[in-house]
UniProtKB/TrEMBL annotation:
This is Alpha/beta hydrolase. The lineage of its organism: Bacteria, Pseudomonadati, Bacteroidota, Flavobacteriia, Flavobacteriales. The keyword Hydrolase applies. It comes from Flavobacterium franklandianum. InterPro entries: AB_hydrolase_fold (IPR029058), Esterase-like (IPR000801), Mycobacterial_A85_antigen (IPR050583), TPR-like_helical_dom_sf (IPR011990), TPR_rpt (IPR019734). One of its GO terms (molecular function) is hydrolase activity.
């Protein structure tokens, strides 16, 4: 029997496209409503891929995640992300979806069917229909947060990151998860949170899990636990979402003033290698090919000038030509190198060539022509 997806609703916002579909599941034996949020650039960039976020409790978690991700993407602190919210309209439905066997602590009955639905139906469908990068996140709240941990019980986790909001843990989970962390051979992000006004029993179990996770000592696990002061079981969610997303997407952020002053400006040389390593890490961790931001080029340029390691500008030129071949950036950088090394003739030639190419960032044709005139005036006349 083939899966059938019925198109129900479509709307467009400033940032992304949001659709609600009815997914006919063989595993569940019934239909399930899913909400899909596509980034605004999805149609404009046919070669671009996006991380995917699977949201349990999609009924009420979709909008806060949707807003946080759109805000982060606007400022380039986070990549645009495809969001898939699974509706669990009633408490009975979410409890059924999270059902487990008391004897062995594993998904059973409807809980086992829901586990198969996510892994063998929903994810394949989304990844076939949309351009998804090889980076998957799953998130849930209380009952569903605890349930999401079952995906860690496998030898290989199909998710790269877990966001566990005030999780209600299954018995023995506080010891099984740390054991799995110790054994995992893949990089993994794991975030959990509570509020100090959270449900008492839940809070005690999470604190036990936190203490045990800290003994796992696996460098592949990027772990963070937040306990928010003055937050309840429900209000903690709004504190948690940006904290979790910032943890997971830390490597994606542009160079900040702190990063510049503490890590880059102190380098006597090798500034360009720092930049390429930074973007290689984005590809390695998130599976994303990202063009180097102009602001990051300028930050590296500033560090090179500060340390007078001018030959690094030659390497920066090669990088600029690779990332922005039609722009004036590469010829500007090589012109700057010649200028700083005292070869005004070569600098003038580079700036003149740059003036004939596309403007980029704060680099303009007028600026290049001014630099050309300046270098010409410094060039000895024959």
């Amino acid at each position: 029997m083939k899966q059938i997806v019925l198109f129900l609703f479509f709307s467009t916002s400033l940032f992304s496209q949001k659709t609600i579909e009815i997914f006919e599941s063989n595993k569940l034996g019934k239909s399930r409503e899913i909400t899909i949020g596509l980034p605004d650039s999805y149609e404009q960039n046919p070669n671009k891929s996006y991380p995917i976020l699977i949201l349990l409790d999609g009924d009420y978690l979709f909008d806060p995640f949707y807003g946080a991700l759109n805000y982060g993407a606007y400022w380039e602190d986070m990549p645009e992300t495809i969001i898939v919210g699974i509706s669990q309209n009633t408490n009975e439905e979410r409890v059924d979806d999270s059902n487990y066997d008391d004897a062995n602590g594993l998904p059973s009955g409807k809980g086992a069917a829901f586990f198969s639905f996510i892994g063998s139906e929903l994810l394949p469908y989304i990844e076939k229909k949309y351009r998804v990068a090889p980076f998957r996140i799953i998130a849930g709240h209380d009952t569903t947060a605890g349930y999401s941990n079952f995906f860690l019980y496998k030898d290989y986790s199909i998710f790269n990151a877990y966001i566990s909001l005030s999780p209600e843990l299954v018995p023995e989970m506080d010891t099984i998860i740390p054991e799995r962390f110790s054994a995992l051979k893949q990089p993994l992000f794991y975030y959990q949170s509570t509020g100090d006004g959270d449900i008492k029993e839940l809070l005690e179990d999470v604190k036990k899990l936190d203490a045990n996770i800290k003994t796992a000592n696996n460098p592949l696990i990027n772990y963070k636990y937040d306990q928010f002061k003055g937050a309840s079981h429900y209000s903690a969610v709004l504190y948690s979402i940006p904290s979790a997303l910032n943890q997971i997407f830390e490597c994606y952020k542009p160079i900040s003033m702190t990063e510049f002053s503490e890590k880059i400006a102190i380098l006597p040389n090798g500034q360009v290698k720092y930049l390429t390593d930074k973007y290689d890490l984005i590809t390695k961790i998130l599976g994303l090919k990202v063009a180097i931001r102009i602001s990051d080029f300028k930050a590296i340029e500033a560090a090179i000038l500060k340390n007078k390691s001018y030959t690094e500008l030659d390497k920066l030129t090669e990088l600029a030509r690779k990332n922005y071949p039609k722009s004036m950036l590469a010829d500007y950088e090589i012109g700057l190198m010649h200028e700083k090394l005292g070869d005004s003739k070569k600098a003038a030639k580079a700036y003149q060539k740059a003036s004939q190419l596309d403007e980029i960032g704060d680099l303009t044709k007028d600026m290049m022509l001014e630099k050309f005139d300046e270098m010409q005036s410094l060039t000895p006349k024959k």
